[in-house]
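On clarity, I found the account of how folds are encoded harder to follow than it need be. What matters is that the chain and its backbone geometry are given together, residue for residue. The format is easy to grasp once an entry is in front of the reader. For illustration, here is how one protein appears when written out as sequence plus structure tokens.
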Amino acid sequence: MAFNALLRILATRFCMSDVWVFGYGSLVWRPAFEHIERTPGYVRGYNRRFWQGSTDHRGVPGAPGRVVTLLPGAAEDAVWGMTYRLHAESTQAILDALDVREQGGYERLELDVEVPGDARGSVRALTYIATPANANYLGPAPLEQIAAQIIKSHGPSGANIDYVLELERALGELGAADEHVQELAARIRRLSEPEAKKAAHE
């Protein structure tokens, strides 16, 4: 309860000033909300991992997909994504919509985001992180196992495999390739190839 009250206080304060949102998953390529500007940025001290289960977007209850969350890492680690500045008059509505979009285990928090090439240097932004405490958290697994799970997972937002490949593409366009994402995408392509050939001959 205290945590939710804090979020309401932060939201009220943010609505009176510039609000930034940092996305490191689907928000990189599909924010689905209006914004004044967008700029690539990164957060230090974290790693991006496909350790969060998705039962509302890329999977269903009983057959979850896998999506990314941020995990604490070494001080030199960095996770690239996209940072969005919101319109003041629509900030609360956008945050409310994002709370629904990320309701499958994610919590909202503030992080310092470095924005190279921008005169501001860094911005304080809201982001969403799924911690091990949430019911949908799946945690680590061999990359081959994660890839196999993703290949067979589908949900209201589409195929889980599309989420991985779109994230890989978007990060590549930013010049910010992520080793975990790339290795997972490569395994998915390798595992999917026999299935594609099989379907083509049926």
